[in-house]
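Quick illustration, no need to memorize.
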Amino acid sequence: MTKRNARAPYASGEDRMISTSLGEIAVRVVGDGPQKVVLWPAIFTDHNIYDRLVDGLASAATFVLIDGPGHGRSPGVAREFTLGETAAAMLSVMDALGIDRATVGGVSWGGMVAAEATLKAPERVERLILMNTPMDICGAHPKFGDRLVALGARWMLNREVFRNGVARSFFRPESLSRDPDASRSFHAMLSRADPVRLSAAVRSVILRGQPLRPRLSAITAPTLVISGINDGLYPLEGQASAALRLQDGRFAPVEGCHISPIDAPEEVKSLIKAFLTEESYR
């Protein structure tokens, strides 16, 4: 791991590969604002889900956009891993870029990783952003549907019918129609992925996950919880009740389903901009 005091210069628009215990992690740096925001994506997606979000916020913050192991340009590992390992990988990215403290967050899996990093190293986290984040996922009692998704990730990744099924549960249909680049990026990333390594990541999340809800009260960082009004995977009511457990939390429902930066980019952008700048969250 790069030492935290070993400053590694980076520039907006730069792509980097950073060594972690989960293999090389691909990152893209966007923006040159004074605040640092590190974002991890959902399973079955890569950093491109944040394209519309960071557009317009580049002067306010420097975004470090991560591809999770086995996703996008991050090759991943051919084994299952723990949430703690992904949190350590996020902190390794910060170390390699010389970032001592930042706002961390993500969508779904990304929110789980960011929350775990916050619990693991609270001194490294200024604020926490949880978007469409599973609060009760439990690997000890996986649902039948989760097992099917894990099998599909291994054996049906190259089939359009499987990818379309994932898309239907992730996005509202008009989002992908409105943003064909997002649709092409989603299908292209999955069709290129190594099914062994991507499915290892998927199994690690949905078959080995640890419930977040009972641990939220230990998070002291100001936290923004964003939830899609029509998220069929993690419904609004459960997200709202989980947010009440936070010491310094704010709950914000937005239009759409499970990938809010795609379904409601302007709403999410406004919420995050306010969260990063309001005095009450400093």
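The CA atoms of residues 27 and 66 lie 5 Å apart.
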